[in-house]
Write a sequence for this structure.
């Protein structure tokens, strides 16, 4: 499935610049360069924005020391159309556990990866398109360590081309005005009978 590409970071609570664990590291999900807050805090967040609106099908999150992660979404276009209207975020992924209290205290399993399929996302948000994604991390079990994320990936479904579809219950593929039949379901015996019939007719003419 196509991965949603983030264009920029809109905001973040803090970042560990001393160790180069910047918020903008999350813009390149394949680099596996973490973002962490600079020191322990009640919660840490980062807000990413895309150039276009996207419908999220599934999410993959790589953790780096957070006990819980939740994801919120919004559409900046609603605020731009009305400057007096405050941007409201909706829950896309409810609070999800990445580390147990024991793991947190021992600093074990800090970089767990979890995948969240479509059915795990909020029904109210997964069917709409968004361009802002706010990720909130918390670590209430160990108040001595900074925490954050190793990477995030948001995937979307490919857009269906109205000019190209497969008729339900049929092996035919419609491409605009053309209709292509699948060869997989052709009956060789039927073809041979058809050819025999045609040959017989030719001999009798």
């Amino acid at each position: 499935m196509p991965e949603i590409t983030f264009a920029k970071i809109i905001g973040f609570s803090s970042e560990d610049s001393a160790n180069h664990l910047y918020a903008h590291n999350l813009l390149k999900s394949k680099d596996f360069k973490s973002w962490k807050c600079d020191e322990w805090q009640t919660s840490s967040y980062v807000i990413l924005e895309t150039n276009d609106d996207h419908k999220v099908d599934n999410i993959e999150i790589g953790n780096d020391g957070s006990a819980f992660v939740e994801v919120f979404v919004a559409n900046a276009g609603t605020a731009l159309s009305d400057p007096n209207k405050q941007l409201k975020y909706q829950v896309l992924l409810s609070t999800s556990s990445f580390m147990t209290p024991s793991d947190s205290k021992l600093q074990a399993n800090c970089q767990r990866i979890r995948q969240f399929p479509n059915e795990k996302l909020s029904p109210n948000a997964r069917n709409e398109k968004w361009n802002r994604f706010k990720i909130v991390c918390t670590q209430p079990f160990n108040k001595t360590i900074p925490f954050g994320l190793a990477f995030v990936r948001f995937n979307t479904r490919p857009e269906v081309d109205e000019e190209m579809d497969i008729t339900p219950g049929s092996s035919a593929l419609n491409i605009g005005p053309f209709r292509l039949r699948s060869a997989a379901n052709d009956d060789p015996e039927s073809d041979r009978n058809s050819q025999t019939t045609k040959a017989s007719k030719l001999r009798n003419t």
Observations:
- The radius of gyration is 26 Å.
- The chain has one domain: 3-156.
- The first strand starts at residue 8 and ends at 12.
- The CA atoms of residues 135 and 202 lie 74 Å apart.
